[in-house]
Amino acid sequence: MGFSDIFKKKNPANSARPLVRPILRPGLPPHPEPQAENDFIIVILDSCRYDSFMSAESQTITKLGKVEKRYSYASWTAPSHYNLLTGLLPHTSPEQVYASEYYKEDFFNYNTRLGAKGIEFANMVPGLWFPELLRNSLGYSTNARVSLPVLNPKTGINRCFDSFELMDSHNDMRAMLPTLKFSSDRPSFYLLNVGETHYPYALPDEDSSMWPRISGVNGVFKKLNASVDEDGNLQKSDDEFFDQDKLDKLRDRQVHTVRYLDGVFEELFDTVPKNTHIIVTADHGELFGEKGYFGHGPIMHDKCFEVPYLEGKIR
Q1: Among 313, 216, 290, which Cα is nearest to 49's?
Q2: Are 47 and 254 in contact (CB under 8 A)?
Q3: Are 208 and 202 in contact (CB under 8 A)?
Q4: Residue 34 in contact with residue 182, Cβ under 8 Å?
Q5: H/E element holding 44?
Q6: How far is CA 202 from CA 152, 184, 190, 207, in A?
Q7: Are 112 and 118 spatial neighbours (Cβ–Cβ below 8 Å)?
Q8: Residues 6-59 pLDDT 10s
Q9: How far is 301 from 252, CA to CA, in rounded Å?
Q10: In degrees, to the nearest 5, what angle opens at C-alpha 49 toward C-alphas 46 and 54?
Q11: How confident is the model at residue 298 (pLDDT cuts 50, 70, 90)?
């Protein structure tokens, strides 16, 4: 049974949404003739740890394929997305395997995902940038829709994309869907960075005044400015760490966002053309009090690296 059979009812709400104009990047060379058959989408559920995803018991996303526990190469949004855009997806951590052999197999799998031939890690040299391979060698239209400001279009991640847009809201995957455009002339690649699963783990219709507020997390960019005393010594924050009851409630909020997103994915599956290959994963996990940690970033803990991973093709 294909997705056209699973999802017979289209969501008319999408057609009523205004088109969000993408930011077009000038100076890119003309597209070559397409060398692949499949449209390709990578959906990154930002900060979504593996066991939160499993606790949500998805009914729609998991129709793509079997959920695997994989491991991110990084514990923070920006470096993790940079790594993803070198073409290296979260890994399985196999024993007694050389890294070079793992990369070789990982890249060979793109031949099936893209409906192409001859893709291997050597194709990435010297640029080591997957959107460049997709666009300038395989003829893809390359596009990104991101939720988190650390991935904004002025960062180095915006390289070799035909369109790259920071969405108006940090937690509204549904708003991305009307901006997805597909052509019969060439396949499209979309990177979708989804923010509902990121702190404060909020749905788009929630009143922001009701969001949980963690001192030291909210206004993080402002708090990066150093505060020093009269002797020039760095002053550390005296913010109290959340108690475990509050941290448990935050994890419940993340699980709830995955359940909500299950419905948005149904709309995504109805939006994309047939022969679209979709990967769903996360950039890193999240800590909710384990061994005294909260969040992600400068943390070395399994739960900060464990992410869900599944993929499949819309037929």
Answers
A1: 290
A2: yes
A3: yes
A4: no
A5: strand 39-45
A6: 20, 36, 23, 9
A7: no
A8: 333 333 333 333 344 444 567 899 999 999 999 999 999 999 999 999 999 999
A9: 20
A10: 115
A11: confident
The tokens describing 214, both together, are 């963690």
Rounded to an integer, what distance in angstroms lies between the CA atom of residue 32 and that of residue 167? 29
Cα dihedral 123, 129, 132, 133 in deg (nearest 10) = 30
Are the C-beta atoms of residues 1 and 133 closer than 8 Å to each other? no
Query: What does the chain come to in residues?
Result: 315
Residue 142, classified by CB atoms within 10 Å of its CB into exposed (0-12), middle (13-18) or buried (19+), is: buried
Helix (H) or strand (E) holding 39: strand 39-45
Q: State the chain's mean pLDDT as an integer.
A: 86
CA angle (272 as vertex; 271, 273 as ends), nearest 5: 125
Peptide linkage before 200 cis (omega within 30 of 0): yes
- Residue ranges per structural domain of the chain: 3-11+38-203+245-314
In this predicted structure, the answer to whether residue 166 has a pLDDT above a threshold of 90 is: yes
Topology of the domain comprising 3-11+38-203+245-314: Alkaline Phosphatase, subunit A (3.40.720)
For 200-224, letters b (16+ CB in 10 Å) and e give bbbeeeeeeeeeeebeeeeeeeeee
Cβ neighbours of 226 (radius 10 Å): 7
pTM, rounded to two decimals:
0.85
CA–CA distance, 125 with 119 (Å, rounded to integer):
12
Tokens read off for 309: 């991973």
> In 3D, which of 173, 177, 169 has the Cα closest to residue 193?
173
**CA dist., res. 9 & res. 262, Å (int):** 15
Q: pLDDT tens digit string along 256-297?
A: 999 999 999 999 999 999 999 999 999 999 998 888 778 888
- pLDDT: which is higher, 11 or 173: 173
**pLDDT for the residue 244:** 83
- Find out whether 257 and 203 touch, Cβ atoms under 8 Å: yes
3-state SS string over 159-173?
A: CCCCEEEECCCCCCH
